[in-house]
Design brief:
Elements (H helix, E strand, L loop, with lengths): L1 H19 L2 E2 L4 E2 L10 H20 L5 E6 L6 E2 L9 E9 L5 E8 L6 E9 L6 E10 L9 E9 L5 E10 L30
């Protein structure tokens, strides 16, 4: 019995270290931090309106969402003008363009072969300048250890027109919307990713 207790304590300590060591790759910010929201409330509200209107547009205008895919061992996306997904897709991509052809929304969704996770990286760009306005990482996953079912994580980063990070919101909830952020969760599917600062870099 003593041996079992020691193992549980060591496992909990290891999980705590892993939970704290979660950094957004090229922005050097802890994934579970929240900052700047009160100071930048007006801007955050405006950018949240942009996010909501874009997602509403996607739901109501699926035919206007441009589809691309990364297939097999390639790292170059291919266009899918016929909306038919090929085999062996490793990443699906959604794009919305302005009337002038500028990318205003870009989202990547890596394929989960196990089905234990869903991850999306969503970018919202300024139509005129192409600079990033909002970046979101959404992750729904099992095996968090802090609860038996699905955990739903959302990080939203808000940027100025010069690309400076102004604010961030973070939430971690279960499938019923109950807060898990205060619990000790394990994040087994935190895969590496980068955040581009301009739509000019998105398909390079």
């Amino acid at each position: 019995m003593k041996t079992i207790v020691i193992i549980i304590i060591l496992s909990s300590a290891a999980l705590e270290i892993l939970a704290q060591d979660r950094i957004l790759n090229n922005l050097a910010i802890q994934e579970d931090s929240t900052f700047g929201l009160d100071q930048q409330k007006a801007l955050v509200n405006r950018l949240n309106d942009l996010v909501e209107s874009t997602q509403d547009f996607i739901v109501g205008n699926e035919d206007k969402v441009e589809l691309m895919a990364i297939v097999g061992n390639s790292n170059k996306p291919i266009s899918l003008p016929d909306k038919e997904w090929p085999e062996n897709v490793t990443t699906s991509i959604n794009i919305i363009r302005s009337k002038l052809g500028a990318i205003t929304y870009y989202a990547e969704f890596p394929t989960s072969e196990s089905g234990d996770w869903f991850i999306g990286y969503r970018y919202y760009f300024d139509e005129s300048s192409g600079v990033i306005l909002v970046f979101q990482r959404v992750a729904n996953f099992f095996n968090s250890t802090c609860q038996s079912g699905l955990a739903k994580e959302l990080s939203t980063y808000y940027f100025s027109t010069t690309g400076e990070i102004l604010a961030k919101s973070y939430s971690l909830v279960n499938n019923d919307g109950e807060d898990l952020a205060s619990k000790l969760c394990f994040f087994p599917y935190d895969y590496k990713y980068d955040v581009v600062k301009s739509s000019d870099d998105i398909l390079d």
